[in-house]
Specification:
Layout: H1 2-20, H2 26-39, E1 44-49, E2 52-54, E3 57-59, E4 64-69, E5 73-78, H3 85-98, E6 102-107, E7 117-121
Parallel strand pairs: 5-6
Antiparallel strand pairs: 1-4, 2-3, 4-5, 6-7
Helix pairs in contact: 1-2
InterPro entries: GxxExxY, PDDEXK-like_dom_sf
Protein name: GxxExxY protein
Pfam families: PDDEXK_3
């Protein structure tokens, strides 16, 4: 089911990109992607607080998950010139902290969105 869910999210992201193209703020793509997913009846939360647990103490360091889809999939959105290793590391860290095994990194600042999508699995 996780892979099917990722496919649906990618399809929705492609639709958003098809309608808007590259060059807008991340927050615009986020709101539009949330709209598309909810329109399909998929449960999605955005800007989800992600605390760090260190030696039994919880710290709220201001980490936020861009999208948490059906509590099974983390989606990290970017609008950058190109995806870097640090973006992948960020997503992997969020996945570990949230104990969620699958994530998508989506860079909307691409002419072809498929070139800006990275699927990650723990």
């Amino acid at each position: 089911m996780d892979k099917d869910l990722a496919g649906v999210v990618i399809g929705c992201a492609i639709e958003v990109h098809r309608q808007l193209g590259p060059g807008l703020l991340e927050s615009v793509y986020q709101k539009c992607l949330v709209y598309e997913l909810r329109n399909l009846g998929i449960q999605v939360e955005y800007e989800v607080k992600l605390p760090v647990l260190y030696k039994g103490i919880e710290f709220d360091n201001g980490f936020r998950i861009d999208l948490l889809v059906s509590k099974l999939l983390i989606v990290e959105l970017k609008t950058v010139k190109k995806l870097e290793n640090i973006h992948q590391a960020q997503l992997l860290t969020y996945m570990k902290l949230a104990n969620i095994g699958i994530g998508l990194l989506i860079n909307f600042n691409e002419v072809l969105l498929k070139n800006g999508i990275k699927r990650m699995v723990l």
